[in-house]
Amino acid sequence: MSLPPGFLDELRTRTSISQVVGRKVIWDMRKSNQGKGDMWAPCPFHQEKSASFHVDDRKGYYYCFGCHAKGDALSFIRETENVGFMEAVEILAREAGMTMPARDPKAQEKSDRRAQLAEVMEATVQHYRLMLSTAAGQGARDYLAGRKLDEHAQNRFEIGFAPDQRQGLFQALTAKGFTPDLIVEAGVCAKPDDGGAPYDRFRGRIIFPIRDGRGRAISLGGRAMDPNARAKYLNGPETPLFDKGRSLYNHGPAREACGKDAPLVVCEGYMDVIAMVEAGFGGAVAPLGTAVTEDQLRLMWRIHDEPIIALDGDTAGTRAALRVIDLALPLLEAGKALRFAVMPAGLDPDDLIKAQGREAMEKLLSEAKPMVSLLWQREIEGKVFDSPERRAALDKSLRAAIKRIADPSIRSHYGEEIKRLRWDLFGTGQRGSAGGGQGGQRRSDFKPGARGKGRFTPPANALPETRASLLGATGDDVSEHLRAAMILGICAIHPALIAPFEAQLEAVDLRDPTHDRLRHLILAHAVTPPEQIAEKLRAQAGDDLEKLLALPHLRSAPPIVKADDIELARMCLAEELAKLATARAMRDEIADAMEDLEGLADEGVTWRLAQAATLRHQAERSKLEDNSDTGEDRAALSAQLQAMIDGQIWRKKH
């Protein structure tokens, strides 16, 4: 549903963010200024005792100086209530006395039809609940008792029973005034091919109602009582209410539990979810008779940033987990991940809890593995890498998997982790394998984690002066370190530029911890009037900002010296941000190319390329330094470099 222009602006105008936030926090009145709408409280998003959560009622924004959470009234409702955007809009609109925009007639007609179908589903749930308590439901009650489902659990999940009758439900619903076509469209009854009267779709089965995130009954799941039944579990068909690829069992209660910091655990079936919830894991959900779909995965990420996949510990469960990996790789975003809790062989969550108790499941969830670990395990499982060709095949399959990740930052971090795992497997000295195997010494000086960072670590016997130098202290590329300092210095001297450059400042990779802390303090004032920023920033940053502005290259820089020239500062800031991003992108691309070559058929290629680069560097220096004392024959160096290029030393000789 789209909102008309101006609706959200009017909603924000009518809404007081301090009133919205005030329902969830206790204001620190010693620090707050209620008359100016300047309110402070302990943060509702992380545990703390001090009041670092700031609400500016006039601007309609909140910001936490501890966890850096920020947003407006809508985002606060979404985060604290764990609801979607439109639901947050509806909540605020009701409180503000605003009427949600009316839908067009066709949409209204469709909505009315869905409401009628929901009534059919609700009546069906109540009918099957009643049937469970009758004499015909004795066998179902015995089965549930055998599965340790007491009356409380049965009521909580509204479990029912469908007797083995052809038209028991159909007659009950028509007696309540529902038309046959509506009953069939709801999916609880089916129409025979010969055109006869509709018959009950669920017969001789224990019934599990399926509800959407708003609590509406949208379909049913049924477990057969007859062990010889053609299908052990049966779900309702696709209907205007029910799309099995977009729904999750126990969606609403799980969303509420996850909003209170419970983990989101994805199980395989109804009984697993019920067992998990009864054991205290309220954030349990399950797909509905299909493998996890892309829509379900996105739905899970709306509920929780890091769902735990806890599928059965058998071959089918392992295959399902691997399918989820292939599905998730292209969808990964920063902060959106998956973890996998590997069940013991032959057990599902229900079996594990019954056999070993809640503590065993809690331990298993706490040890859930990141997705990259399962990806790696899949590629090496049962394989021996005792030849260059086999190792090259592993490299090829891993690169193909990582390239499917759309987010460049995540793709880079996956490459780092895969490189580390590969180093652990093949290592220096012993070229190990998943099942043994020998290998030789590596000629490369590569170390995991060094990719593209320009890292410099002073040797153990370095002089104190060396360790105290900028290069030794930062462990980073000096030019990039100085450029990052310039960016922060310009923002501190020209606070009016913080808001226009907020997105670039958030995205820039500041690898020095002090720089990163200053960046967060600067961004915290993106919505603060510029004339108030300087004083607040100096008070919060303390010596870090003073030391930064005291750097020689900042003291003499035009945008720092000319504090009144905002346009000059704007151009310089844009240029520094662009240069920093370009330099790092170029270096990372080169590092990626070097890593792609690493471990393939000819491992000497990276060494030879490095030698060529060294010669080129020497040649360039000799051109710039007209110094006869160096003893370097520039012509000879140039000729040697050209010979290496002409000879294409990077190609393997046959």
TrEMBL record:
It catalyses: ssDNA + n NTP = ssDNA/pppN(pN)n-1 hybrid + (n-1) diphosphate. CDD domains: TOPRIM_DnaG_primases. Its cofactor is Zn(2+). Signal peptide: none annotated. Binds 1 zinc ion per monomer. Keywords: DNA replication, DNA-binding, DNA-directed RNA polymerase, Magnesium, Metal-binding, Nucleotidyltransferase, Primosome, Transcription, Transferase, Zinc, Zinc-finger. Gene3D superfamilies: 3.40.1360.10, DNA primase, catalytic core, N-terminal domain, Zinc finger, CHC2-type domain. The keyword Nucleotidyltransferase applies. Belongs to the DnaG primase family. Monomer. Interacts with DnaB. This is DNA primase. The gene is dnaG.
